[in-house]
Each structure stands twice: as structure tokens, then as C-alpha cells.
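Q: How do we represent a protein-ligand complex in a form that can be generated cell by cell?
A: Start from the inputs.
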Amino acid sequence: MDEERAKRIELQEEQRALSLQLVASQQQELNRRAELNIISDELENSRKKHAREIADLEFDLQKKDRLLREANEDLRACRNDLEQERETVSSLKSALNAQSNAHLTLTAENRSFQTQFTALQAQYDELLRTNANLILDLEAERQEKIEMRKEATENEAVRRKLHNMVQELKGNIRVFCRVRPVLPSDIPPSSGYQPTNSPNPSPHEELELIRQELKADISFPDRRDHREINIWSSSESATGQERKESYQFMFDKVFEPECTQAEVFEEISMLAQSCVDGYNVCIFAYGQTGSGKSFTMEGGASNATKGMIPRAVDQVFRVAEDLRSKGWEYQMEGQFLEIYNEAINDLLGKHEFDKKKHEIKHDPKSGSTRVTDLTVIPLSSPTQVRALLSSAQSRRSVAATLMNERSSRSHSVFTLRITGTNAATGESCEGCLNLVDLAGSERINVSFGNGFGTAGSNDKERLKETQSINRSLSALGDVIAALGEKSERGDKHIPYRNSKLTYLLQNSLSGNSKTLMVLNLSPLASHLNESLTSLRFATKVNNTTLGTAKKQSR
Ligand code: ADP
Ligand code: MG
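Then emit the C-alpha cells for the protein with adenosine-5'-diphosphate bound:
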């Protein structure tokens, strides 16, 4: 038991110690806790203080963060911009390179242009000098031209005078004689001759032989001037012997059968010139039907065969054109009429037959002649004249078929009237070219024998026709003869009024007019008597030329 007590006491002692220890540790604990509380307060204070600071810092941070973000954004934008700028710079650089190359090339080019320019400048200066010289030359030439034009105008006046003098010396009334060739149509079928278009044509020699047989004995002895024609006619004498008679005629020109239209016109062309100079010209084709009057006057369609009318018209237009450079302006008009049984028919009228009654009016003041109600066409070109002639021709052929060869029983008169003015000299002139295809000159009995009329009612008509032809042809011969005598003896009555034809042509035959008669002859022996009659008529006309020839000696 003691031990238990001792242990108890020990345990109690230990318990007391422990309690003391516990109280100490509790005290410690309390101290620590107080300390902790203080620390905790301090901590709390510090925490509070720091929380504010942290909040401030956080706010700051957020702000900075935002700023940073913004700065980043800006930076990115700047980078992009930079990138773009870089690209721009690079492209600018390459552009600059290219420009620089171009600049180099341009500089090189510029240099070469500069060289060229210098050369051109030198050339230009040279040209300027040449130009100045040329202007001087031109001025000199202009002066010369003015002088020459003046001279030409003066020369033109002199030429007109001389031309007229030459024409007058040749005689204001002239007669040509033209013998046509023997034609295939002259060969009678009874001769046995086969023309070239038949299946068995006769040889050329045979044709020549037949031609010789048909031909009258005509010769042309004057080989130099071609002015003579001789005809031999044989007849039987009372004693039955063959008698040969020779007839010699002389004209201003004789054209042999081989002569071309151009050769005939060569002799006439001067008259066309006269007419442009303001003179009146009449050209007549005289001869029996079939002797070549229409061929001479109108001719064929080709250039070689065209007749005196188209040639004269061409010539008149050509001369008028030439004279334009000398200040002359011309106006032309044409008319074409027919005189049948002493009545005038308009060949240019619109209707097939001319039913109008035409009158001839002379104006004594101007010396011009007009036919009332007649178609007068202003003419501006030779082709127009040709068209006009062919339309007249077709009208005549209609009349011819309906009225039995009327064209050879009427006189046709083509008139080209030319009016010229010269503004430079103040001159003016009016000329008239009359081209007359006369009616056939065959005598009345021949006319019947030639088949122009048939017996019966036509005879009266035919007789009237033939009488008026004879009357007008002899009136023409009388007028021309009287004109010739007039120039020899001064004033004399001229019987213009004896026929429509001479009355119509009064102004163109009188005064300072020029008249040409082309006597057309058939070469045939069967027409010999008719040819002799024609030759005698023409000789009567021709002798009158002596009148004007006398002027030469004055
Ligand atoms: P006219 O008018 O005198 O009655 P033409 O002129 O009608 O005569 O001529 C009769 C024929 O003779 C026509 O066929 C014509 O072609 C022809 N003739 C006339 N003269 C010649 C000539 N010099 N050359 C060729 N043929 C001609
Ligand atoms: Mg005829």
C-alpha cells in the first residue's frame, strides 16, 4: 500500500507538475495567441493596406494592360503600314529604275533628235533661202506672165485680123469639089459580081474591073494644088462616029475619091475658126442624090468617117476652149431645121412631125436671124451636139420612110450660134456657123426616072417638090453670084427673098461672111450628065470668087 500511496503521491505530483506545465503552456498559448492576434491585426492592417495598394496596382495594371494592348494594336497597324510602305517603296524603286532606264534612253534619243534637229534646222534655213529666191523668181515670172498675157491678147487681135485677111484673100466665097468613090452598092446585080459577104465572093481584080467599067472618065491633072477636074464625055456624032469631048473645071480645091473626111475638113477648119472670131459662115453640100452630100456633112459613126458638122462643132469647142486663156468666154446654141416645099420644119421638136408654122425674123440692128417657135438648144459640149444631131437624124429617117426619101428632097440647115465676150478687153462677138445639106440637085425628068415618084397622084406632089428644089437651088446660085458681083461693083440688089433658104441665110451670106460650097459628084458614068450640070452650076458660083480675089490687088 505505501507503494501505491507513494505512486499515487508521485502521480499526483506528476499531475501537479503537468498541470503547472499546462498552465504555463496555456499561458504561453495565450501569449502566443495575443501575439498572433497582434500579428493578425498587423497582418489585417497590412493586408488592408496592401489590398488597396494591390487594387491600385491592379487598376494600374489593367490600365497599363489596356495601354499595352492599344500600343500593340498601334504597333500591328504600324507594321502593316510599314509593310505597305515597304511594298510601295519597292515598287517605286522598280518604277524609278524603269524611269531611270527610260530617262537614259530618252536622253540618248534626245541627243540624236537634237542632232537631227540641228541638221533639219540647217535644211530649213536653206529652204527658207531657196523659198525666198523662188518667191522672187515667181514674182518675176508672174510679171512676165502678165506681160505675155497682154501680148497674147494683142497677138490674138492681130491673129484675128490676119486670119480674116487670109480668109478674104482666099475668097469669101469658095467652092470645093468632091468626087465620091464607086461603092459596092453601085454595082448592078446584072454584072454577076458577088459581094464579099456572099458564099462565093468574086475576086478583088474582078471588082476593080467592074468599078473601072462603071466609072466616068474623070481625071485630076493638077497634082500640086489639087484644083482641077477634067471630064471626058463621049457621044455619037451625026455620022455615027464616037465623039469625045473634054470639060475642064477649076475650083478652090478638088478632092479625089480616095480623100478622107479629115483631109476635106482640113480645108474647112479655118472657117470654124472664123466663126468663133465672130464671122458668119455657111457651108453648103450641093449635088445630086447619092453623090455624098450627107456623107460629107454628117458622115458615118466612126471617128474616121464622121462628117463636117461634128468636126466643125468639135473644132469650134476646141478653139473656144483655147481662147478662154485669152480672156474669151463663149456661149453656144444650136438649131436644126429642114426646108421642105418652102416650109420650115423643126428637126429638134418634141413631136414626130412639126405642125407649127415658122417664120423667119431678121433683126437689122444686131444682124441676127431667128425662126419663130423653133427649138434652140444651149450647147455646152460636142457630145451633146452629137446626141442632138442623131436625134434629128432619127426624126428625119422617120419622115423619110413615111414620105419617100424626103430627106434628099429637102434642105437641112444646122446652125451653131456662138456668142463670145472678153471681160479683159471689153470686146464681144457673135458668129454663126450654118451647115447646109441641100436637096438633091437632079433635074425634074431625072428625078422621075430615078424612081422617086410613081405615076399618078404622086406626080403632082413630086412636081411641086422638084420645082421648089430647083427654084431654091437656082436662087442660092443667083444670090451667091450677086454677092460676088456686089463685091466687085459695090452696092447691088441681092435676091435673098427668092427662096426660103436664101432668105433664112441672108445675114449669114451678106456682109463679112464666108461661104463654102462643097460640090459632091458621083463617079459613075451613068451620072455623067448630072455631074456636068452640077459642075456648071458650081462654076457659076465659083466665078464670083474673082470678086473677092480682086481685093488682093488693092
Ligand atoms: P446624098 O446625101 O448626096 O444623097 P449620101 O451622102 O447619102 O448622098 O451618099 C450616098 C452613099 O454613098 C452613102 O451610102 C454614103 O455612105 C456613100 N458615100 C458617099 N461619099 C462617100 C465617100 N467619100 N466615101 C465612102 N462612101 C461614101
Ligand atoms: Mg443626103
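The chain has twelve helices and 14 strands. Residues 180-181, 183, 287, 289-295, 408, 520 surround adenosine-5'-diphosphate (ligand 1) (CB under 6 Å).
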